[in-house]
Amino acid sequence: MFRDAALVAGKDLRIEWRSRVTTNQVAPFAVLVLILFAFALDPDRGVLQRATAGLYWIAILFSALLAVQRAFALEAADGNRDALRLSGLDPAGIFLGKAGAIALELAGLEIVLGIGVVVLYGATLSGWLLLITTCVVATIGLAAAGSLYGVLAAGLRVRETLLPLLFLPVVAPVLLGATRAFEAALDQSPADGWSWVELLTTFAVIYVAFGVLAFGSLLEET
């Protein structure tokens, strides 16, 4: 399973490296979202700084949606999805590979956007252990949920509009938990944020486990 996951993740990451979609399109889009928020809330810098955590994770969620759509659009052309089904790869490995590639792309975006909130919003990052743990767990949850709903919507003609309707409401716990944990870290009260990390961990474990068990059936149905 893990060998197949490494093969799938390597394939997706090589395609992204050659196409530069993440660096040339998704990352500029995410930074632009932060800039627009900065313009919208600029008259009151106090509000902007207090909303830093929420705005950061909203930008991450929008970027995750684009990354998921891109990951499964790769399989839509030239019968690649049928080839993937007939490849003999473990479905659980395909799921973990897809989710792993998406997670690595999101991790890079989180670093870029972290620099963005420092420069644009004047945020002072503190509570590094809580910040890093929150990013890791939230990223795993987003990638796992995105991979499940991505394959569910991939075989439909309206996948571009259906995926946001399926994905965004489901990841509301990530937005809530990650925002609250970030707020606690930025307020230098990290002890208040670890309970939210537990929520994020529960979400991530549920979607990873469900993906390992159900991805094969979803791939066959689509």
What is the topology?
Elements: H1 2-19, H2 21-41, H3 45-50, H4 52-73, H5 80-85, H6 91-121, H7 128-154, H8 159-170, H9 172-186, H10 194-221
Helix pairs in contact: 1-6, 2-4, 2-6, 4-6, 4-7, 4-9, 6-7, 6-10, 7-8, 7-9, 7-10, 9-10
The chain-level mean pLDDT equals 83
Question: How many DSSP helices?
Answer: 10
Unreliable runs: none
Biggest beta sheet summary: none
Strand content: under 5%
> Into how many domains do the coordinates divide?
1
Helix content: over 70%
User: Span between N and C termini?
Assistant: 21 Å
Description:
It is a single chain. The chain has helices at residues 2-19, 21-41, 45-50, 52-73, 80-85, 91-121, 128-154, 159-170, 172-186, 194-221. The chain is mainly α. α2 packs antiparallel against α4, α2 crosses α6 and α4 runs antiparallel to α6. It starts with a helix and ends with a helix. Helices cover 84% and strands 0% of the residues. The protein has one domain (2-221).
